[in-house]
Specification:
Two copies of one chain form a homodimer.
Chain A (H helix, E strand, L loop, with lengths): L19 H8 L3 H8 L7 H13 L6 H8 L4 E6 L7 H12 L5 E6 L4 H13 L4 E5 L17 E4 L9 E5 L1 H14 L5 E4 L6 H17 L15 H14 L5 E4 L2 H13 L9 E3 L5 H4 L8 E3 L2 H16 L6 E5 L2 E3 L8
Parallel strand pairs in A: 1-2, 1-3, 3-4, 4-5, 5-10, 6-7, 7-8
Antiparallel strand pairs in A: 9-11
Helix pairs in contact in A: 1-2, 1-3, 5-12, 7-8, 9-10
Chain A binds a DNA duplex (16 and 16 nucleotides) through helix 2 and helix 4.
DNA sequence: CTGAAAGCGCTTACAG
DNA sequence: CTGAAAGCGCTTACAG
């Protein structure tokens, strides 16, 4: 690595970052004084403080957080380990966590395990050996997952997918409540002949959302049209084929609740093509508030937002409390939020 | 923080992680010997090595990479700073970078600046003070962006959105080439009356892709149907409205190339609703290979994959070389890859 | 083959 | 108000 006269390496970046010692030398004081001056400790003459600050500025000094961490035992870093390849769930969770930690001291770093156990172990290892203060594990489905165990050197919060071990802390989206919200909204919009098209039955999220809807229908004394929840896949094509079967069987439905926005998009398309108008004849709801899909639907799709930022926020709060020594084990559930767009406007 | 007899803190996680000293004490040797034994250095008796390894295992010892970094000046960490809220571009880039660095030594940590300059500075600061060995900056559009400057203490690679400063290293997707690929594919599939529906003209990506297509049409001696590139928005609704205008004006088109998969979805829908069959009468192409949209389209959408993993790979390689002292400034372009699905099958 | 010592960049009592 | 010294967890010459 050729070093030029002014200390710039051939890569175009400046050589070794300045240290406290460099600042001390330039300011003509001791390292200890620089540390105190820069950290706002008392017992430093105002004049000295200014001199030090100027020197630090001039050298572009950034304290080495790693060295600080060696002393304090904290690194101000939290690892977010995800398996969510498209980032649809983990990025909002990460944002919420960042917000909760505040722009201040704690940074959240994301690693992607791509749903691969080996990779998860590798990232876990990398994160722990970099001494993160805590971990947030974000699943790619809401299915409960294996615990990482109780013997990690830092606290762990599971988000979106809860841990199977109830001694762990988990934060999940309230899918049952979401199903209930959807039905309540349909009823408020004057619907009473409601069907439910769910996603893949293998997914707890699919079953929970449907279950909430069925519960609410029951409370309202309303029938579930088609007699049962229709389970299939999280795809538009499942939405299309299932709703065609549905209107064959029950031509008089006036509302369809879907397990996801993708399914709802398929439902909307198939309804339009079979000559039913939405929302006049049939109201349709999705789940996820995947803006890209929901706002561009015809008509724009009413849906349920999982408040993933709040999931992230809560995860961060739990983690922070645990780092401070107060863990709150168990599953913490975050309420969803209904977003009414045109697809469920009063008929 | 109440500590129990077995050294477990009330948070449910084990107390302070074991240090080299703990291992040394347990193994009955010196700290230096432990270090050598664990790092595979020579001059350690096999017997001693085993003893040390067992002690380390027993204590769940993980070396503190931060302390190691203090010595070596390297942390084995690279920061990936993005502004891509949905992660659509940055996650594939991150995966590519991880692959290039290898499962081995270097970890990639992602931070999201949410397109906010203040937040970007904050994350930059956090990353640098944690002494990352390098930075990858991923833009949310292909529009060139401000350089972070030449005075950072570590090398920087800009990915997806290039830096405006040619002294920087940038890796971009070849959008002009993508436009050309699309036309060549259409021609190979027997089309000759080709129109182009682009995204938002404010975006360089929109203009580049269109330009490549126009160039290729010219080379083939073919006209651009509708006489000019139709610029609009990156939405399905723009796809729908634009293609309706297009077939009014030019009823005899046999192919439409779109600036994105979203636009192409709108085009497909509007064509179907106006009674044109795809691909028999009109072929349609998208751009992005956004699986969710492309595979669920009717018919499945031919599109262009930007090979973002390769973008990430290249960025990592450039960064690695720069860390070693060999920077290759300038813009490095990654070729796209055409994915033929049914929407462009030979008519 | 093994260990005492110095030092990476920083902070924190403790003297002066 | 200022600075010398010890120490965080580790590695690396250098003695033994």
């Amino acid at each position: 690595m050729a070093e030029t006269a002014n200390g710039v390496v051939s890569g175009g970046f400046s050589a070794k970052p300045a240290t406290l010692r460099d600042v001390a030398a330039l300011a003509g004081v001791s390292v200890a004084t620089v540390s105190k001056a820069l950290n706002g400790r008392e017992h430093v003459r105002a004049e000295t403080r200014v001199k030090v600050q100027q020197a630090a500025e001039k050298l572009n000094f950034l304290p080495n957080v790693l060295a600080q961490g060696l002393l304090s035992g904290r690194t101000g870093t939290v690892g977010l380990l995800t398996s969510d390849l498209v980032g649809r769930f983990s990025l909002p969770v990460m944002m919420g966590a960042e917000d909760a930690f505040g722009a201040g001291s704690t940074s959240v770093f994301l690693c992607d395990a791509r749903g691969d156990g080996i990779r998860e172990q590798h990232h876990l290892h990398a994160l722990l050996s970099r001494r993160v203060d805590g971990l947030i594990i974000v699943g790619d489905t809401t299915n409960p997952r294996e615990s990482l165990g109780q013997h990690l050197p830092v606290p762990v919060v599971y988000a979106y997918a809860p841990s199977l071990d109830e001694r762990d802390m988990s934060v999940v989206s309230d899918n049952v409540g979401a199903g209930r919200q959807a039905v309540e909204h349909m009823v408020r919009s004057g619907r009473s002949r409601i069907a439910y098209i769910a996603g893949d039955k293998e997914f707890l999220a699919a079953r929970d959302r449907a279950e909430g809807a069925v519960q609410a229908l029951h409370q309202f004394g309303l029938p579930l049209m088609g007699d049962e929840v229709m389970y299939g896949a999280w795809t538009e094509s499942w939405g299309r084929s299932s709703v065609r079967a549905l209107i064959d069987k029950c031509p008089d439905i006036d509302a369809v609740i879907c397990g996801s926005d993708q399914i709802a998009r398929g439902v909307l398309d198939a309804l339009r093509e079979s000559g039913r108008t939405v929302p006049d004849e049939v109201a349709v709801m999705g789940h996820d508030n995947w803006e890209l899909l929901a706002t561009q639907a015809r008509p724009p799709l009413s849906t349920i937002d999982m408040n993933l930022e709040l999931v992230g926020r809560k995860a961060a709060q739990l983690l922070f409390a645990a780092i401070e020594g107060t863990a709150e084990p168990g599953i913490h559930s975050i309420s969803t939020r209904l977003l009414a767009r045109d697809s469920t406007a009063r008929g």
